[in-house]
Design brief:
The protein contains seven helices and five strands. With about 210 residues, it is of the alpha/beta class. The protein folds into two domains: about 45 residues, no CATH class; about 130 residues, 3-Layer(aba) Sandwich (Rossmann fold). Helix 2 packs antiparallel against helix 3, helix 3 runs antiparallel to helix 4 and helix 3 packs parallel to helix 5. The longest helix has 26 residues. The radius of gyration is 19 Å and the shape is elongated.
Length: about 210
């Protein structure tokens, strides 16, 4: 269904540039998420008749319409969202609670892929919206991955390298506990506030927890 959705849905997905501008223009994270879903809904309306016509005709027209609309509605929603809160010890001895999220929008084609961003303003709704956009981008160019996204609500410039390593490794452990990471399941990538350094810490943590047999 995602392959079928891709060509015509470009109208709605490419307009996502406007979605991304909402954050910088002072819009709330909820508005960003709702706007992303709104573009998807507009694209879905354009596709319903075509998808119904192409659906196997062994069922009646009404049943085909119900099934197509049901599939389109299921594609819109995030499959899973993991929210974790964990403590780290700062260099000065203080303890701080870190909030983080990983959204897996679609497992229709695996593995999921998507960046991990470190930003003080990132929220659960942000990662859900960004994960859905990743699914649609992959579908548009027929890349065989589902969309995912992660966010950790910190300002990376306010932490030392040692503290950032603690945060990154602990988040990787939390992802591994819940099967939210792995070469056949979910593959993270750099995003805002992260780089190859953080990806190296994640790989090392994954190998030391799951091993290299996966």
């Amino acid at each position: 269904m995602l392959r079928i959705l891709a060509p015509r849905a470009a109208v709605g997905v490419c307009s996502a540039r406007r979605c991304l501008s909402l954050k910088s223009d002072g819009g709330s994270d909820q508005r960003f998420h709702e706007t992303t879903e709104g573009f998807y809904n507009k694209a879905s309306v354009l596709l319903v008749d075509e998808l119904v016509a192409g659906y196997p005709r062994r069922v009646g027209i009404e049943e085909r319409q119900h099934r197509v609309r049901g599939i389109l509605n299921s594609i819109r929603e995030c499959n899973f969202v993991l929210e974790v809160n964990f403590p780290i010890r700062r260099d000065n001895g203080d303890f701080e609670i870190i909030s983080a999220w990983r959204a897996q929008h679609s497992l229709h084609r695996t593995p999921c892929k998507g960046g991990i961003r470190f930003a003080p303003s990132v929220t659960k709704n942000d990662v859900k919206a960004l994960a859905s956009l990743m699914t649609y981008k992959c579908a548009l160019v027929d890349v065989p991955f589902g969309g995912a996204k992660a966010g950790i609500a910190i300002d990376p410039t306010a932490y030392s390298a040692v503290e950032l390593e603690k945060i990154t490794r602990r988040f990787a452990v939390e992802l591994a506990k819940k099967n939210f990471i792995g070469p056949g399941v979910d593959v993270p990538a750099p995003d805002m506030g992260t780089s190859e350094r953080e990806m190296g810490w994640i790989v090392d943590t994954y190998l030391n927890t799951h091993g290299s047999s996966d």
